[in-house]
Design brief:
Layout (H helix, E strand, L loop, with lengths): L2 E3 L13 H9 L3 E3 L2 E3 L1 H6 L2 H6 L6 H10 L14 H18 L3 H26 L5 H9 L9 H15 L5 H6 L8 H34 L11 H12 L5 H34 L7 H16 L7 H11 L3 H31 L4 H28 L5 E2 L2 E2 L2 H28 L5 H8 L10 H4 L6 H4 L2 H10 L1
Antiparallel strand pairs: 1-3, 2-3, 4-5
Length: 481
């Protein structure tokens, strides 16, 4: 038996498949497997067909990302040290966020014009490049071919709900925060339809972009498409870079792809941090003149909180947060919002408020949204929440199963937002003037005196000069009121 080991540098990972080394081995009429080129002499003494049939292939990007970028430990219990490269990238990201938000919506609004539109340009470029690659057809067919049996599993519905909550940010506060800077008579109903439809269409289009290149990678590796499909970080930092590395002018495609990821991440972070900042400034108006310092403090706090993700066990913590942080709590909060608005405040009353902003709507419009908010939406969310609970499985990552204490931490993360709401409710009940308990509840379930537009603003019509003064003028009037 004679073996020729392909020369490689860096880290070792089982079944690493180098495309360039495999090509060299093929020219030598050998069979490449696990960094080794097996020639004809090996096939005479061994069952080479068995070796080929049972071959497992992993791209070098897998090895690079896991061992070099992450320095991934064997489990969440082995925290290891802080990866200075990741910590530095985290600093840069938070510095960008701080600079863009330090001056409020005036600065972030201008930046968003670029960060929101640039990804579409890159997606279009990657789409036309992807569909011209060999194997793209198989990848796209895999994407558009439904597996109907999966609809019977609660996990699919739960994942879909969480994805929608991530994409559209209902119950996160981002939509409410950003829309609060609109003019009073802005057509929020039309905006909501545009945002929802564009989000769905963008997701579908992005799927074609992703799976066209995944099909190409499967074609190059000689495996089925489902063998190279990955999720989350694996898709973004292993599968896609592996494809990009094989394209002509690879650095250009890599720059476009990762710069697109950066802009998408910044967009999400802008909305989240602006939500917290606006809540603090609205609660403590005296801090408005010190908004830059408020944003700076929150940015530092966010960086410190993210340090755990830059350790050797950071990817395990990321997956733990991803599983628990945005699943149960966001569904519970969304259900409560629906019930409080539609039943306590009143769906018709709320729709009447909207009509004051956008004009009188047909009767069908009122009936439709009243039924949606009162019955269909909360019922659907409760259904997803219950079945997510029933089919709950402890956290795991591949063959690694998280220890019991990690899942306990996950549950604490999951219900901490709900706990804060309950704690504030108890605080308000305890500090309300001395009245019977039922009267306290009735009083606290009513809108506050500050609810609604200032009297002057409520009489404005579209085109009024005061309305054209912009959202900052409106906010000043709200403060005075």
């Amino acid at each position: 038996m004679q073996k020729r080991t392909i020369e490689n540098t860096g880290f070792e990972i089982e079944a690493c498949y180098s495309y360039s080394d495999a090509q060299d081995c093929h020219f030598k009429e050998g069979t490449y497997y696990n960094r080794t080129c097996f020639d004809g002499n090996y096939s005479l003494a061994h069952n080479l067909s068995f070796l080929i049939k049972n071959m497992t292939k992993k791209p070098p990007a897998d090895e690079y990302f896991i061992n070099y970028v992450l320095g991934q430990s064997s489990g969440i219990e082995e925290t290891g040290g802080i990866r200075w490269t990741l910590a530095l990238c985290l600093v840069i990201a938070w510095v960008i966020v701080f600079l863009c938000l330090s001056k409020g919506v005036q600065s972030s609004g201008k930046v968003v014009y670029f960060t929101a539109l640039f990804p579409y340009v890159v997606l279009v470029i990657l789409f036309f490049r992807g569909v011209t690659l060999p194997g793209a057809k198989e990848g796209i067919l895999f994407y558009v071919t439904p597996t109907w049996s999966r609809l019977a599993t609660a996990q699919v519905w739960g994942d879909a709900a969480v994805q929608i909550f991530f994409a559209l940010s209902p119950a996160w506060g981002g939509l409410i925060t950003l829309s609060s800077y609109n003019k009073f008579h802005n057509n929020c109903y039309k905006d909501s339809l545009i945002v929802s439809v564009s989000n769905v269409l963008t997701s579908i289009f992005a799927g074609f972009v992703i799976f066209s290149v995944i099909g190409y990678l499967a074609h190059e590796l000689g495996v089925e498409v489902d063998k190279v499909v990955d999720q989350g970080a694996g898709l973004a930092f292993i599968v896609y870079p592996e494809v990009v590395a094989r394209l002509p002018v690879a650095p250009l495609w890599a720059f476009l792809f990762f710069f697109m990821l950066l802009t998408l991440g910044l967009d999400s972070q802008f909305a989240l941090l602006e939500t917290v900042t606006t809540a603090i400034l609205d609660r403590f108006p005296s801090l408005r003149e010190k908004k830059t310092w408020v944003v700076f403090f929150l940015s530092v706090l966010g960086y410190v909180g993210g340090i755990i993700f830059t350790t050797n066990a950071g990817v395990y913590w990321l997956q733990l947060f991803d599983k628990y942080a945005a699943n149960f709590s966001v569904l519970i909060i969304a259900i409560c919002e629906c019930l409080l608005i539609s039943w306590n405040y009143g769906a018709e009353r709320f729709l009447g408020d909207i009509e004051k902003m956008i004009g009188v709507q047909p009767h069908f419009w009122t009936v439709f949204w009243s039924i949606m908010w009162r019955i269909l939406t909360p019922a659907t969310l409760v259904f997803i929440l219950v079945f997510n609970w029933i089919e709950y499985t402890p956290a795991s990552s591949g063959h690694y199963v998280y220890p019991a204490w990690a899942n306990t931490v996950g549950w604490i993360i999951a219900f901490f937002p709900v706990f804060v709401i309950v704690a504030m409710m108890l605080y308000k009940i305890a500090t309300t003037s001395k009245r019977p308990f039922r009267e306290k509840i009735r009083l606290l379930m009513q809108p506050t005196d500050e609810w609604g537009p200032p009297p002057k603003l409520a009489t404005f019509k579209t085109g009024d000069p005061a309305e054209d003064a912009g959202s900052e003028y409106i906010r000043e009037m709200e403060i005075e009121y």
